Every structure is written in structure tokens, then in C-alpha cells.
Request: fold
Amino acid sequence: MRISLHIVLFIVLGLAGCSQNESKESELALIKKTDPNPVLIDENTKGNLDLVANIKEAIASYKEIYDVAVVKGKKDTLVVYKVKHLQRFHMKKIEKKIKEKLEKKFPDEKFTVSSDYKIFLEAVKLNEKMQKLDYSEKKANKRLKEIIKLKQEMA
Reply:
């Protein structure tokens, strides 16, 4: 009896320790299509909302891609996407094509483009944090810079 009580207690504590505060969307972001809304960090430039929507639409139009997340900060725009499984052999070519299209269509923007799952997951998490009212613009810009730096370190 006493041993079974310890086993049950151990299992309950183990399960409680494994739970995290991430939402379902970020947990499933690597497995399935999440289709996150484009994020505009700088609240003063609401006119850029159409810009980020157009960027997302331009990238989502590629047949090789099945999920896109766009985060626009004050200076930088992060574009992350997931490539269909059979197209993964052509990732460098796809990234080059996407960069060229973005630079041609939106010449005034500074883009960071990535197909890395880790970067995609971080962008989705930032998107979720931006939905909370207590997450400041300053924190969001700082986190965006950290994600971009992470992407540059990985390259």
C-alpha cells in the first residue's frame, strides 16, 4: 500500500514537472500548419499592416512552401517558412528565390529569411507573446533582434 502511494505520487509529480506554459499553437508549430497572423511590432506604423500581409501572401504563393510567419520590427522584417518535405533538397534554391522576390517587390525593407524550424518556432512564440497586452513593444523588438541574431549564428 505504501509503495503504491509513492509510485502514484512520483508519477503525478513527474507529469506536473513536464508541463510547460506554452500554448497549443507553439507546441504544434513544427508538426502541422499553424498559419500565424503576420505581426507588426511597431504600433506607430499601422499602415505597415498591409505590408506584412502582402509579404506573407507573396511567400505563401510558392508551391514548395506550406506555412509562413512574418514579423516586422522597426528596422528588420523576419520571414520564416516551412518547406514541404519532398522539396527539402532544394532549400538553398528556394531561399535564394524568396530573397530575390522580396527584395524586388519590397526594396525599402531589410529582410531576414529562414526555413529553419527553430527560427519558425521562435517567431510563432513571439507572435503569441504579442497577443498579450502586457508584452511591450520594446521587449518584442529586443526578442526579434535575438531571433535574427540566432538565425545569423546558424548560417
User: Anything to note?
Assistant: The beta strands are 39-40, 65-72, 76-83, 110-114.
